[in-house]
Amino acid sequence: MPVPLSRILSVTIAAIGVFLSVDAFAGDYTVSYAFDGTTKEHVAAGATNSFNEAGIAKECQYDRPCTIELTKSDLTISLNVQRSGRHKVVVFADGGRSRSIGCCYFSGGEQRAEGDLTQPMLWLRMYEGHARKRNEVVQNIHLGLLYLQFSDLR
Predict the structure, then answer these.
(1) Alpha carbon distances (Å) from 74 to 30, 37, 60, 97
(2) pLDDT tens digits, residue range 115-154?
């Protein structure tokens, strides 16, 4: 029994709709990143770029963590951009096996950093050490600077 043309047409339209929707949600925004892991100690020793890394994460989605792996520095950066119109990003950093248990923090011993996406570039100082407790002043070991630039925001 031949398949009616209307059935073939409806299946084709449904399939095209699925493929188009998958492509539309494949990535809501793109993040270009760079990490400058050169510290004062590296400069004093003459090594100025051993922990520098850069790249692009193209498949980031709103309301889901977007992960960037910095293999040379043994760091994992997680970004979360909410779909709401607040234009904010929340950044977390974790260290791998070569890092201490107290890795990684941002300025003031904070475990997370927030940034404004209306700025052309977000840069964050990263540290290894311990988190701040109440009004404690912390002086952690400087790991480097993380640069983030967001584009293709939908």
Answers:
(1) 22, 11, 21, 8
(2) 988 888 999 999 888 777 788 777 788 888 999 999 988 7
**In the chain, what are the domain boundaries?**
29-151
Structure tokens at 152: 């293709």
Beta bridge partners of 35: 53, 146
Pairing of β 88-95 and β 112-116: antiparallel
Backbone angles phi, psi at 50, to 5 degrees: -70, -25
Q: Which residue is it, tokens 């050169």?
A: 38
Q: Quick one: CA dihedral 101, 107, 112, 115, positive or negative?
A: negative
Contacts of 140 (CB under 8 A, 6+ apart): 102, 105, 109, 127, 128, 129, 130
Q: Which pLDDT score is estimated for 153?
A: 81
pLDDT in tens, 61-78: 998 999 999 998 888 999
